[in-house]
Amino acid sequence: MENARILIVEDDPDYAVWLELALQQIGVGDISKVQDGEEAFRLTESTTEFDLIICDWMMPKMDGIEFLKRYREKVSTSMFLILTVKSGLEDAFEATQAGASNYLVKPLTAEMLQEQVVSMLR
C-alpha cells in the first residue's frame, strides 16, 4: 500500500482528512487531496496517473460523475471509487456506466473504506 498513489476528491475538508487518516492506517503514503472536480481534472492533466481516485459524487463546480467521464477520456487504467449518499440502483448503474470501478454509499466506516481500497489495489 505504501507505493500506491491515491487522489481524494472531496469538497468537505473534514471528511477529506478523515479519508486520508483511514488510508494512512493501512499504510498508504502518497495521498493528494483536492476539493472539487475542476481542481481534480487540472491536477490529473499535469501529473502522472493515480493508482486510485476516491471521489465524492456531489460537489460544486464539477461533480464527481462529470470529472470521472472527463478523466476516463484520457486514462482508463486507474481505479476509481465513487462515494455518495445516493443509494439507488440507477445511481450505481450511472456511476459504473461513467467508468467507476466501484461505488460506496455514505456514511461509511473506516473499515469499509479500507477493505474496499485494499481490494481495489491488489
Bulk shape: globular
Helix percent reads 40-55%
Question: Could you state the CATH homologous superfamily?
Answer: Response regulator
Here the CATH topology equals: Rossmann fold
- The secondary structure category is alpha/beta
Indicate the radius of gyration in whole angstroms: 13 Å
Number of strands: 5
Offer a few descriptive terms.
20% strand, Rossmann fold, 122 residues, alpha/beta
Note the topology.
Elements: E1 5-9, H1 13-25, E2 30-34, H2 37-46, E3 52-56, H3 64-72, E4 79-84, H4 89-98, E5 102-105, H5 110-121
Parallel strand pairs: 1-2, 1-3, 3-4, 4-5
Structure write-up:
The chain is of the alpha/beta class and about 120 residues long. Helix content is about 45%, strand content about 20%. The chain has one domain (about 5-115): Rossmann fold (3-Layer(aba) Sandwich), CATH 3.40.50. α4 links the parallel β4 (about 80-85) and β5. α1 crosses α5 (about 110-120) and α2 (about 35-45) runs parallel beside α3. The mean pLDDT is about 95.
Short synopsis of the structure:
The protein is of the alpha/beta class and 122 residues long.
